[in-house]
Amino acid sequence: MIHNEEMHDEIGDNHIGSSAKNPLRDDAFALSDDEKIERIKKDVHNILQTLGMDLTDDSLKGTPNRVAKMFVKEIFGGLNPNKKPKASTFDNNYKYGEMLVEKNIIVYSTCEHHLLPIIGRAHVAYISNGTVIGLSKMNRIVEYYAKRPQVQERLTMQIVQELQQALGTEDVACVIDAKHLCVNSRGVSDIESSTVTSEFGGKFKEDKTRREFLDYIKLETKF
């Protein structure tokens, strides 16, 4: 048992993901949102009480409920498939055949190892094979997959796979540059480092196309 705990701590501290899909149980949506909020509220109350906080204080009285609602309705709302954005696509009637790049899409996610924020920017590109997608939908796809306990590698892959399916093409790429507060605020406490992940599909695997995309984004991300 101790060995398993040490192994799991090592996996979490090294930010190693276990699956390309978010690990959800089969009964993940058996409870309603309101039922989940009630359960989480009690759990947060117990955590704060165990830490020695005075939950009769006016500043803390509402914290368990606020945290529970935030988990279910906001920062982990992307777990709910009912909130998946509809990827509206259109015929490429103007015959635009070059790369389309959406830069600097804000990423707010949560590291699944320590439940601390991941904050950064995503850069997404595709080459149309006859279909285009609304620009705002690209932002919403990033937001949807970010709003769940995540690892950055998985998030990058999920964004690409979702756009590939919506657009009917393999020619999709994504680069994410983000800070992990589990690295910046604990452990090694390195406040300067950021993590860059990439996923390239179709033509973006070719050196010329990939370089063109990377030249567009230049990775001069500022937070």
Write structural notes for this entry.
The chain is an alpha+beta fold. Helix content is 39%, strand content 21%. The strands form two sheets. The chain has a five-stranded mixed beta sheet with strand order 5-2-3-6-7. A two-stranded antiparallel sheet has the order 1-4. Helix 2 packs across helix 3 (63-75) and helix 4 runs antiparallel to helix 5. The radius of gyration is 20 Å and the shape is elongated. The model has no long low-confidence stretch (mean pLDDT 90).
Strand content: 15-25%
What characterizes the major β-sheet? 5 strands, mixed
Q: Characterize the overall form.
A: elongated
Total number of helical segments?
7
What share of residues is helical? Answer: 25-40%
Mean pLDDT: 90
Instruction: Give the uncertain stretches in residue-range form.
Output: none
Radius of gyration: 20 Å
Question: Could you give the count of β-strands?
Answer: 7
Order of SSEs: HHHEEEEHEHEHEH
Q: Span between N and C termini?
A: 41 Å
Q: What structural category do the secondary elements indicate?
A: alpha+beta
- Order of the strands making up the biggest sheet: 5-2-3-6-7
GO molecular function, one term: GTP cyclohydrolase I activity
Enzyme class: hydrolase
InterPro entries: GTP-CH-I_C/QueF (IPR043133), GTP-CH-I_N (IPR043134), GTP_CycHdrlase_I (IPR001474), GTP_CycHdrlase_I_CS (IPR018234), GTP_CycHdrlase_I_dom (IPR020602)
EC number: 3.5.4.16
